[in-house]
Amino acid sequence: MQRFIAQIKRLPVQTVVTGNQALDLDSFCSSLLTAYFETLNGRQCTPLIPIDREDLRLRKDVELILTRLDINMDSLLFLDEFSTNTETPLFLVDHNLQFMQGKVTGIIDHHAPESDKTMDDNINPMVLSRCSSAMSLVLKYYNEKLDLKKLFASDPLLAPLAFAPIAIDTSNFFNMKPEDITAYQFLANFINQIPDTITFQTVRDARKDITGLSYSDLLRKDFKQWEEIGISTLPKRFHKLDLEELSCAMIDYKNKLGLEVLAAMACGKKGRDFAYLGPKEFDVVTACSDMELILQKEVNGVQFFSQMQTTYSRKMVAPILRQAYAKFKQQ
Length: 331
Ligand SMILES: [Mn+2]
What we know:
By secondary structure, this protein is an alpha/beta fold.
């Protein structure tokens, strides 16, 4: 794996493997391992980190993994260093809606299908299954293609890269679907390869560490866009943030990206928050009634809600908001 990473920038780019734009740990690690396994499987792949190099500092959990595993950041290829074109074969991991130029040739993802287009063409593999971590699906798929046991036993980098996102996405192996359980059982064989410095706690703390980040950094840190709609997931509940500053940052960010709607979400043990900035005529409370929104405050035109449907993360909220907004625009 170290050798594979060292060669990323030296080899010609053929198939590009990319995680989602939010670049959480799942996207980062899953795309890296998929590119490596797929290359071993006979299709030469280049992992492309879908954010600007400068923005890696916003993801302290990813930084932590890189540092603790001695992975040289300079070897990685970032979005501002490479452009795909319409012919570039793309392998989407941890998302299924293409957001950069190219032809989709493979998908391994655990989100709901994000477009009808995802379903056609000769996409191989086409792995779409709802479990907690895309990494669980990566392990499941390549376990059938390669001798993963042997690979993991001989390469100390693989187990921690697979372990960290699954630990985070399952809240420390608590919230597991069948694929996550299988992955967990597989990784249990290699538990002694995972450094003490990479645990659920250390990774979660790094992920929540926002020291030195501005409000606009927070909006950019975990952001996903579907055409005219963007949703940021914030690492802190709204009552712990300065809503005056947050609303100004949201207005700037929405204008900068030319969005029609910018939403922000946050969650904690005791509940969920949702913020909406967009056309006033769009009544988000009624249109997205499943989310059970209760208005708490309006600051500079940004509406801040409590989201009473606390089981709905961005994975669930995004399709609801997109559909409701599409319906609103048709009127
Ligand atoms: Mn994921």
